[in-house]
Design brief:
The protein is an alpha+beta fold and 192 residues long. It has a single domain, classed as Protein Transport Mog1p, Chain A, CATH 3.40.1000. It contains 3 helices and 7 strands. It has a 7-stranded antiparallel sheet, sandwiched between helices.
Amino acid sequence: MSGNDADPPAPSVDVPDGWVERETTTERVFSVSKVTVTATTAVYDDERLREQVETETGGGFRRFVFASRLRLRPSTKPSKPLTKLVTSRAKAGFADRLADRGMADVTERESRRFRVGDAEATLVGYDASCVVAGTRLAVDGWVAVWPGDDGDYFVAGGAYPTRVLDSDDGFGGVVDPGRFRDDLFSIVRSVR
């Protein structure tokens, strides 16, 4: 079996202190025509934030990031139509991931270009909300998709709370959307 026929390795990701890898999975994510796409995904949680929220409110919130390497078989060079297809599937999968994590009212807000190393990614922003310890929080989610140099694709993103929508039961000192966004974008840019 050649290296490109094997399952893809998880991407390399630089996460700040306090982040913990929760899981790494490999799965076939979709097939189109004669092309099969397999993804290896690593998911990280901000353990410090979760502990702080639990201490101050009794509830838990997991600010998370993930990074996936997608391998196409047979090996196919990235093209505009292929990148558009991978981006469309990644967006749908990310919206599902947010819902699976308890987010409600998940809506796509914007799409723009985003630099990751030498690559140009498509970055898509989402609005959502969630309830933690009886408090409703607004949540921002972001997902980026870009082709790698070796024919693989990368998908990376995450979500974080941005503000309290009702009943500030100790969340005021926990929510720091500017820092959370900077952290997320820095982590996404570290994916290799």
